[in-house]
Automatic annotation (TrEMBL):
Residues 15-153 form the Phosphotyrosine protein phosphatase I domain. It comes from Butyricicoccus pullicaecorum 1.2. GO terms for molecular function: protein tyrosine phosphatase activity. This is Phosphotyrosine protein phosphatase I domain-containing protein. Belongs to the low molecular weight phosphotyrosine protein phosphatase family. SUPFAM superfamilies: Phosphotyrosine protein phosphatases I. SMART domains: LMWPc. Keywords: Hydrolase, Protein phosphatase. The active site is at residues 21, 27, 127. InterPro entries: LMW_PTPase (IPR050438), Ptyr_pPase (IPR023485), Ptyr_pPase_sf (IPR036196), Tyr_phospatase_low_mol_wt (IPR017867). It comes from the Bacteria.
């Protein structure tokens, strides 16, 4: 009976996609929220999460990230930043980075995870941290397009 439970747990934890940025207060929470808002969880069978490479656990999403994401249907009001841990990386099916630098840093820190680390887009998603609402809106729009494309690609992989 334990063997069945272990297989279920392996299946469950492998169904996670974690969006990764620096502080987990702007880009990665917006990507996570947009993945949900675009019905990505139902369409792909993956549970969306987010984390930061240098996050301060417990910080809320930035005010402008909450506003910009809300305008696109994503709710970040309950988001709290968290640091990406090796355990989280191990449990994820995909680790989706916002920039090539995040990708490089993550693969350097966790070389065993390289096969599951990707960038969201061929073009880096610039950090809007400290920017005005227009900057966050532009970032959110870029994320919405990239996350939508990601969902489409993941759906094709399920067929």
């Amino acid at each position: 009976m334990i063997g069945c439970l272990e297989r279920f747990e392996e299946y469950r934890i492998m169904d996670q996609i974690i969006f990764v940025c620096t502080g987990n207060t702007c880009r990665s929470p917006m990507a996570e929220g947009l993945f949900r808002a675009l019905d990505g969880e139902a369409r792909t069978g993956l549970t969306a999460q987010s984390a930061g490479l240098f996050a301060h656990d417990g910080l809320p999403a930035s005010e402008n990230a909450v506003k910009a994401a809300a305008e696109l249907g994503a709710d970040l009001s309950q988001h709290h930043a968290r640091q990406l841990t090796p355990e989280m990386a191990k449990e994820a099916k995909y680790l989706v980075c916002m920039t090539a630098a995040h990708y490089d840093r993550l693969v350097e820190a966790l070389p065993w995870a390289e096969d599951k680390v990707f960038t969201l887009s061929p073009v880096d998603v610039a950090d809007p941290f400290g920017g005005d609402l227009a900057t966050y809106r532009a970032c959110a729009a870029q994320l919405k397009d990239a996350v939508g494309a990601l969902i489409g690609n993941l759906e094709k992989g399920r067929a």
